[in-house]
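Final report, Chapter 2: Outcomes

The project's central promise was a pipeline that accepts a single protein chain and returns its three-dimensional structure in a standardized token representation, suitable for archiving and comparison. That pipeline is now operational. To close this chapter, we reproduce one record exactly as it appears in the project archive, with the input sequence first and the structure output second.
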Amino acid sequence: MPAIHREELDRRVEQIHHQVVAWRRYIHANPDLSFEEQPTAAYIVGELQKMDTEGRWLHISQPDSNCVVADLKGGAGDGPIIALRADIDALPVEELTDVPFASKKKGVMHACGHDTHAAMLLGATKLLLRDAEKIKGTVRLLFQPAEEVPPGGAKMMIEKGCMEGVSMVFGEHIFPIPGLTTGKVGYMRGAMTSSCDSFHIEVIGRGGHASMPEGAIDPIPIASLAAATGTVLVRKGAILRSSDNLHAEIVGRGGHASMPECSIDAVSIACLAVTALQQVVSRRMPPSKCPVLTITTITSSSDSYNVIPDRVTLKGTLRCTDAEVRESAKKAVEEVLHGICGSFGATCRFEWLPGYGVTENADSAYDVGMRVLAQVLPSKDHIVVLPECMAASEDFSEYSKVAPANYVGIGCYSPEKGCTAPNHNAKFDVDETAMKVGVKVHFGIVHELLMQ
């Protein structure tokens, strides 16, 4: 198979970059929350139809009104079906950037880069249509809803048959992590994203992403891991963790603040419980498989200054690298909460809300990805091989259960352009030149597997 001519690909990507930026900015300005993406999906359908006005190459469908599936069946004959996925939902965040294309919807923002994911896949589609005659097989374009809200849109799309016949599936995610500069790709063989379990506990500190508690004191330093513009994050095996949500209600006995001895103080018990839960990670789990346990919310049944509430609710997430640790960590969390509450005469009502599983990069798909990166990136210095599984989670893990999958991170960190805020931050923005890398990677995957 002929190798990709990188200079020619660079030229072609540069020619369409203005359009990719325009797509991204429109979607960014018009964000839709999870399972409410009908307007975004309709916009994507319209843009795909403009690319193939005669409907010769693209077979567009909507298994649900908030998603889009488009099959690009090549002109070189039958062959495998390769899926490329982009999530398209936004977050319930009030945007605090000053960009001219800021969100037009109050309290809704593309604070995780899904606007860029959709734009990069549209850009790759535009390039692939120019070479449609050379494609032997089918490229399935998955514009997926609801990555941000478990059980997630991936599961729904799989249930509706969107992965039928797919031999491999590939995904990308934008990360503004210092070191992972624009143009670099982050990669990992095997599990790349962790599973995630959430719990409900309310403690007020400084906000940040639940998978990166170290960034809650200052969200910016954590970004310095290695995700500057021009880099790509990779990892074989587990690349993202599992995630589960925890909801715990500590029930005590309310009373007057002047007479705490007459109450069972759910607030002080909750404080002890949150501190004790950190022992689950540091003392009950093996260091090599240490989960990330983060309490993200603490609320009480009263907001009065002089009332001791009878109930406090804790919420949070548990993120793990494998199934064994996931189950043992859940058990340990429950034991700690029940033990602390029982010691002070309180009770604990406990519920796990299942999140996402571990995202695994299959060896075969990872190797394809590495061959592509070697061809589309300027040098191996732009590839960041992750030494361990990232703490983030996402429902791309569902695809990795049904077909060999590969998931990479696209660096977009750029202090020069003011793009330093982390994902899920109200000031999140991306260095838009990073989208060139994402377009090249999508195109390169198809070239490697389906083009003659």
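Archive annotation: The chain has one domain: 6-450.
This record, like all others produced under the grant, will remain available to the consortium after the project formally closes.
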